[in-house]
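Field log, afternoon session.

UNIT: design team B
ACTIVITY: writing a sequence onto a fixed backbone
BACKBONE:
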C-alpha cells in the first residue's frame, strides 16, 4: 500500500484526530486526566476567500484565530482558548459552561 492509500481504519483515525474535535458539540464536558482538567469547546471553522480558515469559539466572546490550513487553524484556536481561560482565571472569573449557550437557527428571506 502506498503512502497515499488509506484503509478504513486510517480514515476513522483521521476523523477522530482532526474532524471530531473541531465539530465537538460536547461543550463544557470536563474530564480528569493526569490531574489536569480538560474541557471541550465547540469551535466554528469558516474558510476564507483568500485561503485558510478563521475559527471562532461561540462560548468565549472575542476568542478568534486563523490558520493557513485546517490543522493550523485548530492548533491556533486551541492556544487562543488556553490563553483566554488563563486570563479568566487570573481575573477570578468563571469559565463559561454549556448552560450559558443557546443555539438556534433563524430563517430569513433571501
Amino acid at each position: 500500500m502506498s503512502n497515499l492509500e488509506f484503509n478504513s481504519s486510517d480514515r476513522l483515525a483521521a476523523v477522530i484526530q482532526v474532524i471530531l474535535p473541531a465539530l465537538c458539540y460536547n461543550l463544557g464536558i470536563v474530564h480528569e486526566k493526569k490531574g489536569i482538567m480538560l474541557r471541550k469547546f465547540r469551535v466554528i471553522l469558516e474558510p476564507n476567500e483568500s485561503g485558510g480558515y478563521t475559527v471562532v469559539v461561540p462560548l468565549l466572546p472575542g476568542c478568534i484565530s486563523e490558520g493557513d490550513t485546517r490543522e493550523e487553524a485548530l492548533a491556533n484556536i486551541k492556544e487562543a482558548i488556553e490563553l483566554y481561560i488563563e486570563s479568566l482565571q487570573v481575573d477570578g472569573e468563571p469559565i463559561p459552561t454549556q448552560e450559558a449557550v443557546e443555539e438556534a437557527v433563524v430563517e430569513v428571506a433571501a
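LOG NOTE: The two ends are 49 Å apart (CA to CA).
NEXT ACTIVITY: expression trials, pending approval
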